[in-house]
Design a protein that fits this description.
With about 180 residues, the chain is of the alpha+beta class. The chain has a single domain, classed as NADH Oxidase, CATH 3.40.109.10. It is about 40% helix and about 15% strand. The chain binds flavin mononucleotide (FMN).
Amino acid sequence: MDDFDAFLSLVSKRASCRSYLDKPVEDEKIRKCLLAASLAPSACNKQPWRFKIVIDPAERHLICSRGLLPGLPMPWLKDAPVIVILCADTSFVVHTIAPMLSKVSFHLVDCGIAGQHFVLAAEALGLGTCWIGWFKPKKIRQIANIPRSMHIVSLISLGYPAGPQQHRTKFTPENISIE
Ligand SMILES: Cc1cc2nc3c(=O)[nH]c(=O)nc-3n(C[C@H](O)[C@H](O)[C@H](O)COP(=O)(O)O)c2cc1C
């Protein structure tokens, strides 16, 4: 299998995982996911991503019971043995200036890339993930003690999948091309 086939096979296999086994994730696997994330590109190589790995059951319980926005129930999240809080260090000047000039939030782009590196590494290690954007940032900051200088970008659930994931329909390359 060449590099592209291996890559496409990995990205095709990934789908959001919303059911998890009651099985802890090995520290070594979490470290490998963080390693993959750390290799992501970033604007001016500032590498603003920071990952808080929440394993403690009481803290996870608080995130699930108080940290999510209403209207999109995520009962499955309580079964995920790990909740990752993906944050951006916003203290870099480039992150203040860039949105004024280019209208692009570099730190959000950077964290999106690093987060997906993390997610794909997890997939390669037999783990399931789901990006979670429907959270209350103030509550998450309080519960997980995230410093003010960090922008909370996303949560990502992590764990061993309890079964096969549902694969969603995707646009074709033609659909996503601008003529
Ligand atoms: C930024 C972002 C935020 C998301 N937030 C949520 C969420 O709060 N709850 C949830 O169940 N899924 C969430 N998702 C997962 C999407 O619903 C999912 O990626 C999409 O339906 C495509 O399915 P797939 O991941 O299986 O390809 C989010 C995904 C992204 C990228």
